[in-house]
Task: structure prediction
Amino acid sequence: MAYEQKPGDIIVFKNKDKQGNQPDYRGNGLDLDGKKIELSLWIKEGAKGKFMAGQIKPEYKPASNQADEVADPF
Result:
């Protein structure tokens, strides 16, 4: 049986191919409304030691190719 995410669940993996200031960890999940989200986490160092800071964004959806949407005039 495959794992199925439920609202509020996240999955995070170490970014093995990190370059520059890319996140140390990336993942995805479902927000509390069941919408897909993407997560990015960085390991930081502060006065009290190491911690993780990150971002949560809506799932990336590439823009549709407008050329495909243009009707053939002939």
